[in-house]
Amino acid sequence: MNGKTVMACIEAAHATLKKHTDEIAALDQQIGDGDHIFNLLRGVDALLAMRANIEAEAFAPALEQAASKLLSTVGGSSGPLFFSLLHGMAKAAQNADTISVEDAARIFAAGVDAVAQRGKAGIRSKTMMDVLIPVSSRFVELAEDSAAPEAVLDALPLTAEEGMRATRDMLATKGRASFLGERARGHIDPGARSSQLMISAICARLAQDRE
Ligand code: ADP
Ligand code: MG
Questions:
Q1: Which of 3, 66, 127, 191 has its CA at a distance of 20 to 30 angstroms from the CA of residue 81?
Q2: Percent of the chain predicted with pLDDT > 90
Q3: Which of the 8 DSSP states describes residue 123?
Q4: What is the pLDDT at residue 149?
């Protein structure tokens, strides 16, 4: 794991967000203010523009650079949350060419804990946490079961998808959608969808790079 790996993940996230821009914009028009995907793309575009800097770094500083760039470019409520995810991961990360499943699970969990502390949202809040928390728990479980990296990269997208789909029937307790009460029901949360898509794309990319 190094800056090149981080950049490969950013590319994968960018490609899937581009592909699903209209869909995520429509979700956010239904229960938010419509800007989520554009906020996020502004941040990811800024990361692509600093490719050389990120690629030159070791793992933790590459995450840290990406985190601060997201903080200054994404905005909305999700900007500080994505910052917390990468910053939390950076603080827990060590710089080594390869990391174990156990270390990767611990690093991701540290990022998700940082998002939870910042956003004060838990599971069933109809937010990105409904994807991040189950994925993090599953990751830790798989690590405890000594799962192989390939098995983890196959399993986490399924957990992410389940979490994303579950937001459809929830009432929102955090963010703009919480002002809608019952009217939020029946719509998937845009932040859950964007997080799920990024997790799936990143897992697919990491699996492909292992082949
Ligand atoms: P804003 O709500 O300020 O317009 P964005 O459009 O950038 O922010 O992001 C909206 C997404 O952020 C929501 O779909 C939801 O998933 C996520 N979100 C909002 N508030 C929180 C929170 N407190 N914790 C975790 N995620 C949240
Ligand atoms: Mg918004």
A1: 3
A2: 95
A3: T
A4: 97
Q: What is the CATH number of the domain that holds 157?
A: 1.25.40.340
Does the C-beta of 32 come closer than 6 Å to ligand 1?
yes
**pTM of model > 0.90:** yes
Q: What range does the domain containing 53 cover?
A: 3-210
Mean pLDDT, residues 13-39:
97
Q: Is the minimum distance from the CB of 121 to ligand 1 under 6 angstroms?
A: yes
Q: How far is CA 183 from CA 13, 42, 197, in A?
A: 30, 29, 24
Which tokens belong to 29? 């028009």
Task: Encode pLDDT of 113-137 as tens digits.
Answer: 999 999 999 999 999 999 999 999 9
Backbone angles phi, psi at 58, to 5 degrees: -75, 180
Provide the domain count of the chain: 1
Q: Whose CA is nearest to atom 20 of ligand 1?
A: 175
176 lines ligand 1 (CB under 6 A): yes
- Residue of 28, 36, 126 to test ligand 1 pocket, by largest number of atoms within 8 Å of CB: 36
Does ligand 1 have an atom closer than 6 angstroms to the CB of 35? yes
Candidate of 40, 77, 113, 179 to mutate for ligand 1, largest count of ligand atoms within 8 Å of Cβ: 77
Contact 65, 54 (CB under 8 A): yes
